[in-house]
Amino acid sequence: MVQLTVNGQTHDIDVDADTPLLWALRDELGMTGTKFGCGLALCGACTVHIDGVAMRSCQTTVEDAEGTEITTIEAIEGKAADAVRAAWQEIQVPQCGYCQSGQIMSATALLVENAKPTDEDIDTAMYGNACRCATYHRIRKAIHRAADLMEA
User: Which of 3, 40, 36 is nearest to 102 (CA)?
Assistant: First the structure.
């Protein structure tokens, strides 16, 4: 039994300590916005925030997540998150959409830490977030737009 705080609520979950957080979120808590992509922390589809830091939930065990504040795409909020969502829609970033929850979680974490990122900052922060549709240029443009929206 592990106790996880997810999106501000505490949950007692009956899973093995080495269960990936991804599966606890999806299978035990029904939070399917966090996606399974590769299972190796290489694609970013499973990105969540753990104590405000973008982390891959497929390689984070529930034991390691216990005692932290976990935020999923279902509950991401704040000035950066609002700006990212608005910019994503304005720039029409998604095509298939599968990777977008992870992209949005990583972009939001970046803008919370760095409100005016350079292209290099964006590339570094978004490294490892794969998009099969190759919308990387729109993702970068949307992050710049979100930064502008945050200033307004």
Answer: 36
Q: Give me the CATH code for the 79-151 domain, please.
A: 1.10.150.120
Nearest to 5 by CA among 83, 69, 88: 69
Report the chain's mean pLDDT, rounded to a whole number: 97
In this structure, what are the phi and psi dihedrals at residue 140, rounded to the nearest 5 degrees? -60, -45
Q: What is the C-alpha separation between 22 and 125, in angstroms, rounded? A: 21
Query: Which residues is 71 bridged to in the sheet?
Result: 49
Q: What does the angle CA 77 – CA 81 – CA 82 come to, to the nearest 5 degrees?
A: 90
**Architecture of the domain defined by 2-71:** Roll (3.10)
Tell me, what's the pLDDT at 51? 98
With a CB cutoff of 8 Å and minimum separation 6, the contacts of 36 are 22, 26, 45, 46, 58
What is this structure's pTM? 0.96
Break the chain into its structural domains and give their ranges: 2-71, 79-151
| Mean pLDDT score, 16-27 | 98
